[in-house]
Amino acid sequence: MSAPTAVRERVETLCREIERHNRLYHMDDSPEVSDAEYDRLFRELQALEEAHPALRRPDSPTLRVGSPPAEGFATVERREPMLSLDNAMNADEGRVFDQRIRRELGDEAAVAYVGEPKLDGAGVELVYEDGILSVGSTRGDGRVGEDVTANLRRSTSIPLSLSGDAAKRVSVRGEVALPVERFEKLNAGRLERELEPFANPRNAAAGSLRQLHDIDTERLRALEFRAYAIGEGVPAGTATQAEVLEQLAAWGFRVSVDWERCADIEAVFAYHERILAGRDRQAIEIDGTVIKVDRLDQQQELGALSRKPRWAIAFKFPPQQEHTVVEAIFANVGRTGALTPVAKLRPVRVGGVTVSNASLHNQDEIDRKDVRVGDTVVVQRAGDVIPQVVKVIKAKRKKRTRKWKLPKRCPVCSAETVRLEDEVVTRCPNIDCPAQLKNNLCHLASRGALDIEGLGEKLVDQLVETGLVKRLSDLFAVERDALLSLERLGEKSAENLLAGLGKARQTTLARFLIALGIRHVGETVADLLARRFGDLDPLLAASREELEAIEGVGPIIAEAVARFFADERNASEVARLQSLGLRWQKTEPRITGKGELAGKTFVLTGSLSALTRAEAKRRIQAAGGKVTATVSKKTDYVVAGDDPGSKLSKAQELEVEVIDEAGLVALLPD
Ligand code: IVH
Questions:
Q1: Is 309 in the pocket of ligand 1 (CB under 6 A)?
Q2: Ligand 1 atom closest to 83 (CA)
Q3: Separation CA 180–CA 280 (nearest Å)
Q4: pLDDT tens-place string over residues 249-287
Q5: Whose CA is nearest to atom 18 of ligand 1?
Q6: CB 216 within 8 A of CB 171
Q7: Ligand 1 in contact with 290 (CB < 6 A)?
């Protein structure tokens, strides 16, 4: 049965609109709709496609939400390797490069160049067949990369189809980078969850592409792809790199706006200086400029040597490092009670920013670098936004300095600190520690959580220090008179807070879960939990296994959630918050993974006849199922084709249901 025309048209309109919003958001930085409106459009399209699978277009934006193969990334071999670049560290080396080029071209006249920012991300290649994105891969060793298509699709800055004319097969090369602002947020979140922060945006970007489990979709969505080269499929008549960049933009790619055609090498230097001066204003990290011979025929003539083109060079920025003195080291107590050593530095300008603090991460890090108060250290902001202490200049160490250790007692509440055997973190175990409580309150009041108007950091400090709030739920029990007794708090502010609290009482389950400050439960996970359970009681009753079965929730998250609710003090806080009036709309629980086969795990073995293996896999996944490589007790079905391998005997041994191809087809939705 074919779908009515109205549905077909609606699907097309939605696809177009959603991709337009993606472009507005990513390419033009000027979104027209709220996130909620965007989600509504997206879900409408998903629902229509689920009801009418035949209407799903090969470039539908819903394809941005698939998962990578469970058994790891396939490799992609390329015909034209992705090249790397030689470096020039200064103008002299730049001149040597220019002279060599002119000599080799046998041309004493000036050679024109194109200067581009050197983006500090991860190189990727995107292949489009008949204008539709088919494979995206990491650079790997240049010739062989990893197929990370499913993860790349999540980044809405990657066009799923090319605008305008293109060859049958086109490969586009560029850099995937995490914008600095997102990187900072990501690392702040990681520190909060006591995860090792990423050293720089490049590592964070490369790491996101290679995620296989517990996929952080927010981070993928935030990735920005910028194109700078065409591998295969350069349109006939394209004569220069400048035209390549224009073509890429015309196809719908984001291209660095500040590339420039330079008539000779002196113009290149001027360009380099200009980009260097503005490096701190770039949305994504750059670590130099790339200088390319503009004319493609000249590029061809110059050729490449051992995977490095002879027609291009990376002109690196000087490293952003400075020396300064550690004036003090103190321990900061975070929301989860973690003690983080922080070095207070004599303020110094590094790459245009004044640095006066640097995290020393944990005791192991301090021991490894042996950082002491009074030491002269090298601080760096290379590719990082969080300044780092690179090393101590031991020759400058004064006499009688001492190794620094985290305090045995919490600097805020004096409780004895603990460090578990297999953890790097030292923490204050006192959940009523005012430092933790203040942080928890700020978190609870923040916009992503209960969004309490009128409750800022200062007021939180006052509430905790005066003892009015001794645990989270006390906040909703404070009375007007008690508030008015606080110093410097006027009637208006008290009214504001009470009104803010009143408004915040009506919330959503997801926000409530975020507000509780459970480790690892941020916006994404809270949303998954709220959708899966619909209300708090079924969530409280859920086992660790049930939590883990939710797509996007891995063992660490499941453990953290289960452990949180198993703690009686937390359970009583949750109950008290509800009795103090916190409410949310109950919703119908939805098994995530949607579709008939949600939550079911399949293993394919032997050769199939009606379906190819890839097809079978795709259809199982489209119906919400999972395909894994090895048979375990968690496997629901083993699909055995002809000549099944040892997986069949394994299935029999573990008493896993074995079905044949026809059995699989019967399970699949039409
Ligand atoms: S062109 C000629 N252009 O830097 C082929 N590469 O250090 C080389 N990169 O592997 C690529 N920005 O991942 C080119 N504007 C840019 C670039 C750029 C960053 C990366 C790329 C390359 C690496 C070499």
A1: yes
A2: 5
A3: 10
A4: 999 999 999 999 999 999 999 999 999 988 878 888 888
A5: 118
A6: no
A7: yes
Q: What is the pLDDT of residues 70-96, one digit of tens each?
A: 567 888 998 888 888 988 988 999 999
Cα(664) to centroid of ligand 1, in Å? 46
* Strand (E) or helix (H) holding 560: helix 555-566
Does any ligand 1 atom lie closer than 6 A to the CB of residue 120? Answer: no
Rounded Cα distance between 656 and 650, Å, is: 8
Give the type of residue at 526: A
304 CB under 6 A from ligand 1? no
What is d(CA 216, CA 204) in angstroms, rounded to the nearest whole number? 12
Q: Say which of 118, 438, 617, 626 is annotated catalytic.
A: 118
Take residue 6 and report the two structure tokens written for it.
């109205």
| 350-387 pLDDT, tens digit each | 866 678 899 898 999 999 999 999 999 999 875 545 78
Tokens of 43: 């879900």
Tell me the β-bridge partners of 339: 333, 426
In terms of Cβ atoms closer than 10 Å to its own Cβ (0-12, 13-18, 19+), residue 249 is: middle
Residue 599 CA, distance from chain mean position: 25
Is residue 391 part of the annotated active site? The answer reads no
314 lines ligand 1 (CB under 6 A): yes
Pocket test for ligand 1, best of 82, 113, 118, 279 (most atoms within 8 A of CB): 118
- Residue 174 CA to ligand 1 center (angstroms) comes to 7
Helix%, strand%, coil% for the chain, nearest 5: 40, 20, 40
Name the residue among 319, 291, 282 with its Cα closest to residue 228: 291
Going from the N-terminus, what domains does the chain have, and what CATH number goes with each? 5-63 (1.10.287.610), 75-316 (3.30.470.30), 320-396 (2.40.50.140), 420-592 (1.10.150.20), 601-667 (3.40.50.10190)
Q: Count the neighbouring beta carbons within 10 Å of the beta carbon of residue 585.
A: 10
